[in-house]
């Protein structure tokens, strides 16, 4: 009930549910996809974003005619179903701690209360994969692989998850079954690969235009300039610090080389015309590699900092009162530390590896805590297991008397 009330409050408080330019982009892709063409403007095919989430919006918003409020409500309902599914993998005591953490941890609802892909990837798919892998029979491994294929259609950064599952199977000496999740994921991704082959001449199961270059380039500047100076480029403005640091000069040089406006924001490739996206990404990638070679220590600090920053939001919107922001920051830190302990306790299962997979993918790229949103439910599962184990220590056990706790690891053994 507390989780449901939290979701309803977040739904009302975050209206109109358009978190950023990404939301508008998703809607544009969905609108054109409902007309039969996967394109942001109705003329040029989309090369940067995967079609999974736009297809969902096309079906719900443009096909069924559901208001965006209803779409977001369904997303939150899906997250609630994922929480219920995750709870079923824990024993009674750890399940109680897990639900308590979900009720007091609003980040899952906040990430899912916008026109963004995080809710679908978080709720229906990542948690479903873990539930299937809890008892990895042949049928479950095939279903988990197909789920990972769907995940990749929503979030391409999850493309390596079937290989992670296969590696785990190899390490646990289930050699013959290791290929099953890979083949199942490949089967799901084949239609999109065929579309890319027909449209772009590249049979890729992922978007043909990568965003790695722009993301890595931004990573080389984070930590050197505050977010306000970096974000100013979204309005094509160069702050005095951006000029003095050389950022503005580099951006002008890249944009001049591709024929874009001098201060066109380089942080997202989709902000450029489709014809320029691949070229811009390649130039930014080369520039980022050069910057890392010239200052490897600074970049190494960024990667180490990401171990924490990808899970703990560094700054909250100004409309969030300072005491609330402080409580959110402290609770997130405690949950993250507990989850590290839970990861050690469940190290013989799939759970910790899937949970921290996304952070591992993004450690080398720019910092944005929402990238780990698909794993937040799993993070709370790990924290609940650790909390249950802490409260089973001798000192706490004496306090419990007849209410001795059972092991939260029983379901994973």
Automatic annotation (TrEMBL):
In terms of superkingdom, the source organism counts as Bacteria
- Give the residue spans that cross the bilayer: 64-87, 153-171, 178-198, 324-345
Topology relative to the lipid bilayer, per the entry, is: Multi-pass membrane protein
Specify whether Cell wall biogenesis/degradation is a keyword of the entry: no
Name its cellular compartments.
Cell membrane
Q: Which InterPro entries match?
A: LipidA_mod_glycosyltrf_83 (IPR050297)
Instruction: Print the keywords alphabetically.
Output: Cell membrane, Glycosyltransferase, Membrane, Transferase, Transmembrane, Transmembrane helix
The entry's protein name is Glycosyltransferase RgtA/B/C/D-like domain-containing protein
Q: Which organism is it from?
A: Sphingomonas swuensis
């Amino acid at each position: 009930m507390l989780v449901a009330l939290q979701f309803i409050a977040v739904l009302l408080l975050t209206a109109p549910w358009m978190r950023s330019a990404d939301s508008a982009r998703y809607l544009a892709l969905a609108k054109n996809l409902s007309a039969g063409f996967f394109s942001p403007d109705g003329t040029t095919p989309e090369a940067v974003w995967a079609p999974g989430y736009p297809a969902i919006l096309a079906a719900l918003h443009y096909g069924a005619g559901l208001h965006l409020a209803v779409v977001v409500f369904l997303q939150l309902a899906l997250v609630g179903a994922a929480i219920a599914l995750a709870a079923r993998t824990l024993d009674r005591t750890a399940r109680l701690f897990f639900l308590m953490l979900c009720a007091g941890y609003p980040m899952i609802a906040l990430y899912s209360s916008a026109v963004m892909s995080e809710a679908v990837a978080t709720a229906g798919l990542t948690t479903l994969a873990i539930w299937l892998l809890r008892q990895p029979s042949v049928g479950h491994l095939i279903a988990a692989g197909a789920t990972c294929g769907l995940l990749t259609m929503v979030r391409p950064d999850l493309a390596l998850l079937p290989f992670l599952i296969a590696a785990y199977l190899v390490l646990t000496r289930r050699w013959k079954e290791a290929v099953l999740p890979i083949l199942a994921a490949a089967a799901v991704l084949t239609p999109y690969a065929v579309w890319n082959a027909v449209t772009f001449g590249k049979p890729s199961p992922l978007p043909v235009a990568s965003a790695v270059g722009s993301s890595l380039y931004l990573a080389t500047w984070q930590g050197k300039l505050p977010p306000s100076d970096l974000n100013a480029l979204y309005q094509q403005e160069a702050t005095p610090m951006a000029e003095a640091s050389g950022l503005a000069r580099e951006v002008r040089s890249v944009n001049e080389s591709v024929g874009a406006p001098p201060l066109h924001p380089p942080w997202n490739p989709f902000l450029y015309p489709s014809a320029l996206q691949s070229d811009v990404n390649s130039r930014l990638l080369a520039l980022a590699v050069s910057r890392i070679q010239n200052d490897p220590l600074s970049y190494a600090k960024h990667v180490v900092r990401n171990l924490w920053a990808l899970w703990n939001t560094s700054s909250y919107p100004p409309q969030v009162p300072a005491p609330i922001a402080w409580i959110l920051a402290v609770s997130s830190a405690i949950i993250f530390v507990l989850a590290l302990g839970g990861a050690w306790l469940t190290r013989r299962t799939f759970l910790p590896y899937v949970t921290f997979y996304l952070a591992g993918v993004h450690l080398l790229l720019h910092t944005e805590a929402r990238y780990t949103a698909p794993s937040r439910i799993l993070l709370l599962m790990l924290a609940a297991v650790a909390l249950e184990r802490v409260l089973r220590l001798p000192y706490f056990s004496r306090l419990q008397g007849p209410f001795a706790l059972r092991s939260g690891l029983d379901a994973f053994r």
